[in-house]
Design a protein that fits this description.
Layout: H1 19-26, H2 33-40, H3 49-56, H4 61-64, H5 80-89, E1 98-103, H6 108-121, E2 126-129, E3 141-142, H7 152-172, H8 179-193, E4 198-202, E5 220-225, H9 240-247, E6 257-259, H10 270-285, H11 295-303, E7 312-313, H12 316-322, E8 327-331, H13 337-350, E9 356-360, H14 368-376, E10 383-386, H15 401-414, E11 420-424, E12 439-442, H16 448-463, E13 469-474, H17 477-484
Parallel strand pairs: 1-4, 1-5, 2-4, 5-6, 8-13, 9-10, 9-13, 10-12, 11-12
Antiparallel strand pairs: 2-3, 7-8
Helix pairs in contact: 2-3, 5-7, 6-10, 6-11, 7-8, 13-14, 14-15
Amino acid sequence: MLYPTNLFRPFSLHSGFNRTRYRALFAPLRLPRLFSAMVGGGDHGAEMAELVEYLEGLKNYERIGVPRGAGTESDDGFDLGRMRRLLSRLGDPHTRFKSIHIAGTKGKGSVAAFISNILRKEGYKVGTYTSPHIMTIRERISIGKEGKPIPADLLSNLFQQVKGKIDDSVASENGALSHFEVFTALAFHVFSHEMVDIAVIEAGLGGARDATNVIRSSELALSIITSIGKEHLEALGGSLQSVAMAKSGIIKEDRPEIDLRDLKLQMLGSHQLRNAVMATCAALCLHNQGLTVSKESIRSGLEQTRLQGRMQFLTKREASAIGVDNISLLIDGAHTEASAKGLSEVIEAVHHDRPLALVVAMASDKDHLSFARQLLSGRKPDLVLLTEVNIAGGKSRAISAVYLKEIWIQAAQDIGIDVFDLGVISPELEEVPDRSRPVFAVCSNAPIKDQITLSSKLIQAREKRYEPGLVCVTGSLHVGSSLLSVL
């Protein structure tokens, strides 16, 4: 499916905008350098400070939320023309390598990781671009044989090479270029400079107006659509049909396509197995593009794929570093009804009858009620601790923990579970007064480490049992990131 370029209409924040005015308006709003570094990730140091600070001066839709209709072919849709103009200033780096383009509601990151590792095992030089990140923004761009985040010095140096041209584009587009657009263009510049054999590109919002959808048919090796669901429903037209149409915008004429949308994908087990099958099919389709992939590379690539924050059980050493030695600790970034179902199944399979606590924080634009119903329909938790977390470095998209607790209580009532509402609690609480019902509580002002310790203490004291309990941190990749940052 091709989308004619004359459908894209540029828009601007306001008229009469130039670089001097841009700097005058936005420079004072840039966050302090230390805070900017914390937002971008904790391990890059001074090398990345200028890049992170620069990005923080741009509009960040991950933090403020995606506008209604942004991903559709409408007057409200993102302007892909400005992305093309930015890349033109950089010399069109996205035209210098073959790409695999991945869109879908769930599973994009897993499929991208699987196919990238398969190709690396075969010996190809692979660039991978994904989002969001867990610990550092460098995770979004990976290169090299091991697929590790791009080194800070390399990313910083390549940014400096093109910073003047990006400045010109930001000014000429009246400040409308976003954080995601600029970083996507920088990723393409990295892949071109490093002369990758093939790049695996995960769409952001997805669809025809996604910033990654500048890849042309001549450079596109394969399009993959993993699944279609309700996430970003309003931004992609308001219905599942419109979401499907928007996501299919990444498909180009005469290029192979892997479409397994009829599968009921899950986060682990069947879900990851199907993601692996999809990646395998994609690898086999690449034979038609002149890229050979052996069975050994497929097996090795699949078996060695790991993702932080997705069904991640911390080791005993990691749990001990947080201060809990007597529990299992699971981090999963599930935030949709489908991913909650997968998480429920995993908990049921590995932790059937032991004490269970859920620590939940979510963004405000999710289907909180369906998520809660799905988790409560599985293994009934002993404790649900509702909290809050920064989303992309800010609180504007985070849902209030108090309000989230009310939603969970409603979800419990909907499926006939009688719960005990403990209200707002502190980490000093020693035990709960009612041991016969699941306990719902809010603890949003304490560090995440203290919340984990509290959850462990309460479920062990509640049950008076010696079996190690399970504390599951979920609802957002950002809450998982906040816990992993403790390590």
